[in-house]
Amino acid sequence: MQHFKMFGSTISSTLKWELNVINIVKKAQQWLYFLRRLRSFGLTTQVMLNFYRAVTESVLVFSIKVWLGSIIQNETLRLNRVVKPASRIIGRDLPSLEILYQQRLLGRATLISQDSSHPAHDLFEPLPSSRRFRSIETRTRFSTSFSP
Fold it and tell me: Record's InterPro entries (predicted)?
């Protein structure tokens, strides 16, 4: 299988993200070891949460806006198998990757809608309620992409 790494993400010649997910899970699981060690030292939940967010979560969500919308459910489950043990180690509920993905997409859309010089500014038109953006009607694979 031909693959290449660009900007820290691995993609195959068939535009699959499987190898990227495998690499991310490996890196994140390595950091879970250190999270367990922090717990064994008796550190507070807040310190462990800060460590998780700074190290493990940053590995998991690196370029998440690019690849999470196009991976299969099996790969999503594989990624969430890192979040669940971290949640148990810390002793607090942690947001799933889907929630983090939605938050980052909404943040990006908000920034684009506020920047009138952005090329995609016209694509993000808020509804009259200003709570949501007007959705672009699609009938193809673009229905799950960030922007057409």
Answer: AlkB_hom8_N
DSSP one-letter string for 90-145: HTS----HHHHHHHHHHHHHHHHHH-TTSTTGGG-PBPTTSSSBPPPP-SSGGGGS
- C-alpha distances in Å from residue 100, one per residue of 34, 58, 61, 63: 22, 11, 8, 12
| Residues ≥6 apart with Cβ < 8 Å to 138 | 148
Q: Which amino acid is at 120?
A: A
Q: Is the pTM of this model over 0.70?
A: yes
Torsion of CA 74, 34, 6, 101, to 10 degrees: 50
